[in-house]
Amino acid sequence: MDIKTLNQILEIAFAKRVSDVHFEVDNPPFFRAHGQLLRSKLASLKPEDTEFIAATIMENNQRDLPADFTEYDASYSLANSGRFRVSIFKQRGHIGIVMRVIPPEIGDFEKLQLPAVLSEIIKAPNGLILVTGPTGNGKSTTLASMINYINEKYAFNIITIEDPIEFLFTSAKSCIIQREVGIDTADFGSALKASLRMDPDVIMVGELRDLETIDACIKASETGHLVFSTLHTQNAASTINRIIGHYPPDSQEIVRQRLADILVATVSLRLVENQTNDSLIPVVEVMRTTTTIQGCIRDGHLDEIEGHIEKGAAQYQMQSMDQHLIKLCNSGLITMNEAKRVSTSMDLERKLTFD
Q1: pTM for this structure?
Q2: What backbone torsions phi and psi does residue 179 show, to the nearest 5 degrees?
Q3: Pair 96, 173 in one domain
Q4: Could you tell me the CATH number of the domain that includes residue 80?
Q5: Taking CA 176 as the corner, what is the angle to CA 211 and CA 81, rounded to the nearest 5 degrees?
Q6: Domain assignment of residue 110, yes or no
Q7: Where do the H-state alpha helices sit in the chain?
Q8: pLDDT tens-digit map of 249-290
Q9: Does 264 share its domain with 304?
Q10: pLDDT digits (tens, 9 = 90+) for 10-65
Q11: What is the reported pLDDT for 68?
């Protein structure tokens, strides 16, 4: 492996619109396209190949890979502005790398097939907005689209804290400060505390990974800022449960009160194959924190939230995952089998029949 070969592989990834490139010892490079993992016809990689790739990535980041690392997050840029989010890890004693393709442009809501109500949600003057879903299902892309919408429409000071920086923003009406953990700041907690002294209107935190970061985001929301972040959760109820579960049992009742007061919305995503299996479509649950849902959060009745989302569809432009799946089925965009694969409901087919 040399730099020319590596960059040619990565340029192919951009040209073919794949989402991820895998480099692992004893296997050829793999590409993920439209959700499917595809084995390339290139030669199998040797340990020195993946070591070279990791060293090249770290050189691009102007830092060294820690000698005792087991996993490490970084980014990589091609000369033509192509960017990748990189996960470097150990497997069977060797180095492995997965590189996520970051689109060169930040798509708007329409282009990304996201609900138009997102443009209303982000008008909130303060509070917490969470984008959730499994890895590789569009959280970062959706979050970037929301931040860029604010950037183009409003004169705000926006601070992002990421590990690593993914999408590069260009300040438009807003001023955008992007800080990368490990390069510009020591950790999320320190960066969040510092951000409150940087005259922020909007704060974007790449991911809520630990109690310190979660609590700092809640405090920033409580003090009049609009805060965005992501979580690896399936829906609104599991998102709220995950946040509360990070706190000690004797603090959870107070946290439910705090969260009910500051949570603006959750946007939960899954990507599904379209009818012809040649592209992916986002399925989106949108929960907005109405007075009724605030009560569910305070009282711990999280199992009732999905029902209130479905009842509030018309008035508040909310939708459950099942409601969106049914809409996509009825429009002929996805198959019933694909809808059932994604749905967590046992009676999706009955819902579709009576919709």
Answers
A1: 0.91
A2: -120, 135
A3: no
A4: 3.30.450.90
A5: 100
A6: no
A7: 3-15, 47-60, 118-121, 139-153, 188-195, 211-222, 236-245, 252-262, 291-299, 305-311, 313-316, 321-330, 336-342, 348-354
A8: 999 999 999 999 999 999 999 999 998 877 889 999 999 999
A9: yes
A10: 998 988 889 999 999 999 999 998 878 999 999 999 999 999 999 999 998 888 88
A11: 85
